[in-house]
């Protein structure tokens, strides 16, 4: 498409760009190509707070190699959205253990807190993402941290009937 003259930011009929779609489907080679071709993304341009959050969510749920494409293009791995969520919160919740490990390796705090005091481990526990939780525990995430309502990751997992997660968090 680029060779035929299409602009990298040209939206589809649904309003999505090729960069959005490549990120959402976790295609790092396409993301790198589009970024090199000048595709823009909201974390740099920030056209509106809600659009930034949408982009943040899409990037945050991508795999480690797609995240690398963004980080090598200037996105800060420690960035936060308007809800104080880090990419680590979103990767943990999405079950992207590879991205969780990469983000921790890049210095993102394993016990980072969002606006409600939730940690990435709590987000993994709520969504039943065992591999993400294991990666966070390997990074020394606290099982004792509690959110603004006093709930720990273990309590949140129990409330969602994630028995395997509760067992993991009891070890």
Layout of strands and helices, then pairs:
Elements: H1 18-24, H2 28-36, H3 42-45, H4 49-60, H5 64-71, H6 87-94, H7 97-105, H8 120-127, H9 130-138, H10 153-159, H11 163-170
Helix pairs in contact: 1-2, 2-5, 4-6, 6-7, 6-8, 7-9, 8-9, 8-10, 10-11
Could you characterize what this model shows?
The chain has 171 residues and is mainly alpha-helical. The protein has helices spanning 18-24, 28-36, 42-45, 49-60, 64-71, 87-94, 97-105, 120-127, 130-138, 153-159, 163-170. Helix 6 (87-94) packs parallel to helix 8. The longest helix is centred in the first third of the chain and has 12 residues, at 49-60. It is elongated, with a radius of gyration of 17 Å. It starts with 17 loop residues before the first helix and ends with a helix.
Tally of alpha and pi helices: 11
Radius of gyration over alpha carbons? 17 Å
Backbone structural class: mainly alpha
Number of strands: 0
The end-to-end distance, rounded to whole angstroms, is 52 Å
Overall 3D form? elongated
Low-confidence segments:
43-53
Into which percentage range does the β-strand content fall? Answer: under 5%
- How confident overall, as mean pLDDT? 88
Helix and strand sequence:
HHHHHHHHHHH
User: How would a crystallographer describe the biggest sheet?
Assistant: none
Helix content: 40-55%
